[in-house]
Automatic annotation (TrEMBL):
The keyword Ribosomal protein does not apply. It comes from the Bacteria. This is ABC transporter. Belongs to the ABC transporter superfamily. Macrolide exporter (TC 3.A.1.122) family. Residues 13-235 form the ABC transporter domain. Coiled coil: none annotated. One of its GO terms (cellular component) is membrane protein complex.
Length: 235
């Protein structure tokens, strides 16, 4: 290697000319057409775009859930395109938290277990104590022994946020995290997500259709037909 590292060398997200095609011919769809995106530590990025523009697909690639068809994806310094499935799973566990529109909690586990089990799988010390503290931090100290079916939508999303953040990931990905919630509950969830992520210094990428939410981010990236068509600092 030659030269001095530029600030972007340490950027937790570095995507170069990322392409993604899914499905088999004749149903093969070209979804991402050469995405270049660098996100620096501590940035909060709103990812906007019409339905079908490729937002969730791009997030899946950056989170190591989907392999790009072409290009480079470097996440927290790791080249995701060269890792095998097992190595990717380990890399995700330690670095990435994900919150989705549908909360994806395990129905047979309590709130506490839903948050503690990923930590336990990662071999972290004191998973249940840490899960308890994280659930208290999202305002659910009194609900730790409830099953998902015994929680409201907003409470379930709080559990999902606790689960995503309990391992102190460098990156948090959220795909329409308030899409299944009423306006007031959604606003409270976003307050919580930003407060927890900013406090922990987490770099965050949030997919949203909500302009108010985008306005809270430090940067707004817009996709159309699998291409970045706008990339601006938020005011
Ligand atoms: N597994 C797949 N096989 C083939 N095409 C797919 C697959 N997954 C997604 N697509 C297509 O890729 C395009 C982008 O989908 P994606 O889910 O990334 O869009 P999005 O921007 O997240 O939209 P929305 O706002 O509706 O969630 C769509 O045209 C979709 O039909
Ligand atoms: Mg989507």
């Amino acid at each position: 290697m030659t030269g001095f590292p530029s600030p972007s060398d340490s950027a937790p997200i570095q995507a170069r000319n990322v392409r993604l095609a899914l499905g088999r011919p004749p149903a093969r769809v070209e979804i991402l057409h050469g995405i270049d995106l660098t996100v620096a530590t501590g940035e909060t990025v709103a990812l906007l775009g019409a339905s079908g523009s490729g937002k969730s697909s791009l997030m899946a690639v950056l989170a190591g859930l989907e392999r790009p068809t072409g290009g480079e994806v470097r996440v927290t310094g790791l080249d995701f395109t060269t890792l095998d499935e097992d190595a990717l799973a380990v890399a995700r566990r330690g670095r990435i938290g994900i919150v989705l529109q549908a909360f994806h909690l395990l129905p047979t586990m309590t709130a506490l277990e839903n948050v503690a089990v990923p930590l336990e799988l990662a071999g972290a010390p004191d998973p249940f104590e840490r899960a308890q503290a994280e659930l208290a931090a999202v305002g659910l100290a009194a609900r730790v022994d409830h099953y998902p079916a015994q929680l409201s939508g907003g409470e379930q999303q709080r559990v999902a946020i606790a689960r995503a953040l309990v391992g102190r990931p460098a990156l948090l990905f959220a795909d329409e995290p308030t899409g299944n919630l009423d306006t007031a509950t959604g606003a409270a969830i976003m307050d919580l997500l930003f407060a927890r992520a900013v406090e922990a210094g987490t770099t965050m990428l949030v997919i949203t259709h909500d302009p108010a939410l985008a306005a809270r981010c430090t940067r707004v990236v817009e996709l159309a037909d699998g291409r970045i068509v706008a990339d601006r600092r938020a005011a």
